[in-house]
């Protein structure tokens, strides 16, 4: 039996932090051991946390004291999960890595460092070898691994098997995202009551940039057209849903495609986490629904086992010989953040990067 | 000075009915004279109506009695506006037309009769000549004219000038629609609280079918490719907004296009209602916004003068040489229904079809 | 070890039905064995159910076929749970009771039959002896037991210990209720988006009537004033929350009271289900929160163990010598319906009414 | 004919600022002449304002430049309206008063200065004589007048005529308030989606304090019991409505009352603004609805003429001989802020305090 590893969760009272706490409270070999916070240091976790997820704060963590974000206090910690906000995350994560900790970050700050992996374990697990380069170059005992933006994952997870197997020339994505993706306090209520909030050019651009990097790292069975020639775009919005990013993609191809072949490809898609039977790997990373009104945010965001780890795809449709439509739904704080982080940790453990 | 025309509004207590009543209460030469209803006959309009629009019930109609939907009682009525629901509308509208009334319908029942115009006055005003054919064939003194589905109008109004002037090959539309488009009681609350409701294949299909008919009737400056070769698709949804349909379109072309040329085309677009200075014609049928977070439903649905008569377009973007993105917003019960119906009436009056 | 009892759930795809299915899937000795439905007979439960609760449909029931509501087909069923809608429930429940089934009903149809218990197990468990009278009088082998309206329970559970121990003269209750209390399709979305829906005189009256009956059946330590002299009122509303009824009560007394004594009374309140350690009995039927912004619907509706079985009370405040304020929150489909029904079943089993 | 007065609106792009701009754009003798702002100085008002109200930005102000909040630049301004936020408002308003401007403030900063009137023109117009004292004491040419908190006004406007004419002993108020009352960005969306946000002890307390001051200044026809003996309480909340504060009051009396007498008193209530026929005075400050599901936020917040200036009361009910229930609805940014401010200005003009 595997040794129980102790995890520190930075930003443990935030919207992604709580999913780490909830999921690790049920994890077979990673335990929430150190709950770091900022405004609430010294207070019992259960008293200060805003538990914006299912159920109630697990009993085993409710009385744990929130502690400072300080590597010196974490002697017996084996892994550090960092869902810290942009800007704050960067230097703190470097400090932890320097001190010898494996850091799994959901923050954007190091996502585009050339020696830092940005992992969706089913898609680009081979990029974890960047860690060796990173340690060498930076002379660190620890390391940083990141996960991509939730919005990018929601589109990229189903687009990747398509891109790997068909001559995809473009993908035009319209996102309808939930509030939890922006953290708390996040989006002002008057922006989303009786309204749709466009997220603007910058958010569109970073979504496209991250999807592009993910696609650039998958192993393709077709090599045509090259990724540089693929037109990708995203039009991003938020509305008044609590969790779950919903994304409509129109996908174009260089040759005729059959949407049924694509459906099959998506249904059969598996990755290394499934082969390794990692505990947080859902049996199917992608669940395809055939009803014409699914996926729905309220009903499908918890899909998979563990809940929220499968992306649900639906409304697959042949638009023209070389164009198809696809809708995907991702639980942004689980598969798109904390769950993705835990799956990454499991992969790193399996590969010997965390002992 | 023009004679004041008397209008009957069928379904006058419904969500489109109230906009007819509100707009006609301020109209220079069409007055709400006969308010027809179903469940509330005999009661004062102001007491029974669910006024799901701006302000309060206009004083001049608040005390009017709701009356039966019976042509025999409408001796002095000059025009009949019919926003009746699908199924109910068809036979009633025929009866009124047979009795000699000009009927302007927002219902789908006669939209695809080959001798019935489906009018967006800025786009296909020449199709009103179908009325002559209709009267002859059906031996009617009156006639039926329809307006298209609000969702179809929201995309078609800005797509039409593009299709007329550029070699468009496809348009992939994702709609995020408001609740009022489904009437009352309409959408159950549990379908849209913390959820996005996909409208399914049938609704997608009728949206595409109506956009196609509209485009088939505009006067093009380019004739390539033919409409049959243009790939159109719509993925339709409703969320918890009260009024305003928001639509994201990715548009493809046979040749390179410049999005700035398209912006200019949209900004300069005018139609016959503008030439005729019809009172319900907004100065600009399409208002183009350049900010990257506009249009927004709450802030832009009342655009134009009269309010709600302009479609607001934004987030125009060059995706690739032959692909652009565009977002449009339409006030579904005004431009997409009652306002469109009144503008149609004004056109018919100007052309001598209503005296 | 106790024999596993087989339960039939009528209306199993409804909003209360799904909570029965979810809770019984985890129950130590009552199993969901027969899922009755109406529109979806013959189809797999997991495919047709609208799972408007946490998680996904439990695997053990997902493939079960929805069956007709027919006692003849339920040979091996031990208990029948009936969350059927008003009107439909009455005759069906009678038929099942006549056929020998113990029927636990969440419907209003038999709540005021003088020989039918209306149970909140912590408050009036002694009234189950009405069953003997009922069987005798009606010559039934089975019987009907009901649970009160969720809204009434939300106020009555915390009011009861106050009424039992202090000379209460009045309670003025304002409710802000969730949508699931009205079933599906239930409340039209346009009634609750950017709105508060008053439920009107009838709903107010039935809430008061049911609270009155509950209070009339508790065992009091003070007998002054008599219940007939206690002024009770409720002003009821629904808003766009999915689950959880929130109720503000102003409570008046004949003598001076100390709100801290009331807090203590509420905190220490226990009932027979706690003494009997019934599996669905929460340790504390009432959880008192001291923060001035709790309870909150999103965060407290799942309180207790099993989740949703505790009523959360807060904002206790001394208004004047003889007036206090109290806020309470109940999970309407759990404690207020399915959970209350299961707890009732456990009590009946413990008492030998179900074998 | 009256001279046109020029108004400066501080915080003109805020949620109350926009109602000042909208209402004054239609005012017979006060014009929006100077639009002050903070972040957007130098830009056209129509471009930077978040127009969270009906219609679109009026043409006459859309191109006006937003200017600094500096009395030196306001030579020709006759009145200053100040809906500035708490804390910021205080010193700025003093500066303007010192410079000779009449300042009408919706901010709390000076509401409890003993020489500053806190006006609801229908209720305590005689307190404007405090201005004389204020000017003398502070040696100011200008002066400050305030309006009360919107929440306090929503209850106090209908409670005042009751308190003036009946032996009221208590009022227990539960508020369900809208988001615009908290300004922008204001309430985080995650606090109100699928939730009710309690506003806590401080907000409750200030509501009670302001209602108390208002009642202390009305002219009573009964003097028993003294106000000190009247128990007032408020339990305050916000939910996801945009505009409109909805308040449920249980009101108790020392002697038997008849709710029909109270209904009559409310219906007949008029104040000095009605006698003076001030342009912003609604014909009826209180509109009583008799339907058991009114008022409703969406449908009644715009009641009165000008729209939003009447408080709508409903669900009047006799609870016991000495207790009644009442529901009231106020448009918080109009009657509760900008509209109340403009009515106050009109009163001050009529009384010669502004020339």
UniProtKB/TrEMBL annotation, chains A, B, C, D:
The keyword Cytoplasm is annotated on this UniProt entry: no
Top-level EC class as recorded in UniProt: oxidoreductase
E.C. number(s) listed in UniProt: 1.2.1.75
Domain spans labelled Semialdehyde dehydrogenase NAD-binding: 6-131
InterPro entries xrefs: ASADH-related, Asp_semi-ald_DH_pep-lack, NAD(P)-bd_dom_sf, Semialdehyde_DH_NAD-bd, Semialdhyde_DH_dimer_dom
Coiled-coil region: none
Protein name: malonyl CoA reductase (malonate semialdehyde-forming)
Family of the protein in this entry: Belongs to the aspartate-semialdehyde dehydrogenase family.
SUPFAM superfamilies found in the cross-reference section: Glyceraldehyde-3-phosphate dehydrogenase-like, C-terminal domain (SSF55347), NAD(P)-binding Rossmann-fold domains (SSF51735)
Single Gene Ontology BP annotation: threonine biosynthetic process
Keyword Transcription (UniProt): no
Gene Ontology molecular function terms on file: aspartate-semialdehyde dehydrogenase activity; NAD binding; NADP binding; protein dimerization activity
Cited Gene3D superfamilies: Dihydrodipicolinate Reductase, domain 2, NAD(P)-binding Rossmann-like Domain
Keywords carried by this UniProt record: NADP, Oxidoreductase
Active site feature: 150 (acyl-thioester intermediate), 245 (proton acceptor)
Catalysed conversion reaction: 3-oxopropanoate + NADP(+) + CoA = malonyl-CoA + NADPH + H(+)
